[in-house]
Amino acid sequence: MRNMKKRLKKESLVLGKLFKKIASRLGASVFLEPEWEIAGQITFKSGKKSYFRYNALDLNPVGASDIAKDKDYANLFMRRLGYPVVPGSKTFFSKEWAKAIGASRRLIDDAYAYAKRLGFPVVVKPNSGSQGSGVAVVYNRREFYRAMRAVFKRDRVALVQKFVRGRDYRLVVLDNEVLSAYERIPLSVVGDGKTSIMRLLQIKQRQFIAAKRGTRIKTDDPRLVEKLKRQGLTLHSVPLRGEQVLLLDNANLSSGGDAIDATANVNSAFRKLAVKLTADMNLRFCGVDLIVDGSISESPAPGKHWILEINAAPGLDHYAKTGEAQKKLVEELYLKVLRNLDH
Hints:
about 350 residues; alpha+beta; Dna Ligase, domain 1; five-stranded antiparallel sheet; four-stranded antiparallel sheet
């Protein structure tokens, strides 16, 4: 836990400092725990107090938040409510946890047999956690076992899912309003005809550091190496001028992805979907992650969009650090959140 706190301090979490900056606009004050700056107390003009830790706020009920953290349970309830979740999702367990709960037929070999029935590629991910950590799209037996073992180093439960193709969007909902929406593009580089992918990644990492963005690009990440291999490339390859090379399958900003604002372009039906889903899951503040086979500006087509995940504590740190416009948008978003915390 101490190492985790050190890492978060180094990455300079946005939320606490942002609340200190904007709270005075509402006549509120913020006490930020001084050692790690990851927890705080907000005191409103009325005297009401509210608390936050990391990106978790007092807006959402505890039970609903815990369900959202558990991807399998969240999928279960969303599917029961009729939402289009990613199909074929099933949990499998580490050897120790399977023994503890008496699930001897849900081990890694059983997971591989299930993946073969689904048909490769499949997605392997930790059942808990966020920011795309441990998420991998795998295409064969070797990649599958490596990804599963990586998951079990951080989580005792792994999800195996069918792989669905499309564009990755996050919609941030507060009560009855979609506050922001952005498309998430996986980690990528654009060639200049003379620089290697490794060098382009080093340049990109320096840009992240200059922007105080906590992302650390791991050039030894097996997922990155495999993604390049499937494109007939290596880290030493030199892309053509203007050629974009995708380096990961997951599009999380914490993994080095980029964000393209789409707030003004979201089709009203997708807005209604995100707002209704948030309410149905008994949440007020929620990040709704969608995969859309098409564009979010178009009406949702059956079988062409899926709820990837929901997040009851949608951190916007990485998004705020992608540019000045995004930083301003996040400030306005959290000002609305503060107003709602005071109600």
